[in-house]
Design brief:
By secondary structure, the protein is mainly alpha-helical. The protein contains five helices and three strands; from the N terminus they run ααβββααα. Strands 1-2-3 form a three-stranded antiparallel beta sheet. The chain is globular, with a radius of gyration of 17 Å.
Length: 130
């Protein structure tokens, strides 16, 4: 599968069009289906990449586009500011289930690991080495 993705990358990549393949994340997803909260305790990165579909639905996370449980509003009905500060967004964020809902190697996996290390530093590591 990785060879196929890298071949697709090579076929479509141009000087003005970048194709990114997250090999490490895909490899980790290959061995386990769900995130499992193995490297961090909660999703801190979901505010970085919400997803807005053409019909206006706003999803909390790009990995859950199409899942009605993750719709937090619609930009045709409300402003993004109201959606982002809504009770619905807070409730959906609290229900994020790393163990059973979030895919292994998700789009925000690396960001979550970094944010976890900043929020809960390992006392055995030097504070400047994140």
């Amino acid at each position: 599968m990785l060879r196929q993705l890298l071949a697709i990358k090579q076929r479509y990549q141009r000087a003005n069009f970048a194709v990114h393949v997250k090999v490490d994340q895909i490899a980790s997803a290959y061995v386990r289906q769900f995130n499992g909260a193995l490297r961090y305790d909660r999703c801190r990165a979901h505010p970085l990449v919400p997803m807005i579909e053409p019909d206006g639905k706003v999803y909390l996370c790009i990995d859950h586009g199409g899942d009605a449980d993750f719709v937090i509003g619609n930009i045709y009905d409300d402003s993004i500011d109201r959606i982002w500060t809504s009770e619905r967004r807070r409730q959906v964020a609290e229900r994020i289930d790393l163990l059973r809902k979030c895919p292994a190697g998700c789009f925000l996996d690396d960001s979550n690991l970094l944010l976890h290390r900043l929020a809960k530093p390992d006392p055995d590591l030097h504070h400047q080495l994140v």
